[in-house]
Amino acid sequence: MSTGSTPRSLATLHQEEDGLATAEYGIVMLAAVAFAGLLTAILTSETVRGWLEAIVQQALGAG
């Protein structure tokens, strides 16, 4: 078992993964923006807006 090559291998592995954190961050941000867009589209639909208004009115005792 040669331990002389282990630190060199780890350094090489680290260099190969240098851009991964940035790419992963970009993918997560893209997914978050897509989810926010979907949520906005759902919450601004007339059906959901009516349901939310009914829930709020019932909670406030106006319905």
From TrEMBL:
The keyword Membrane applies. The chain crosses the membrane at residues 25-43. This is DUF4244 domain-containing protein. It comes from the Bacteria. Pfam families: DUF4244. InterPro entries: DUF4244. It comes from Nesterenkonia salmonea. Keywords: Membrane, Transmembrane, Transmembrane helix.
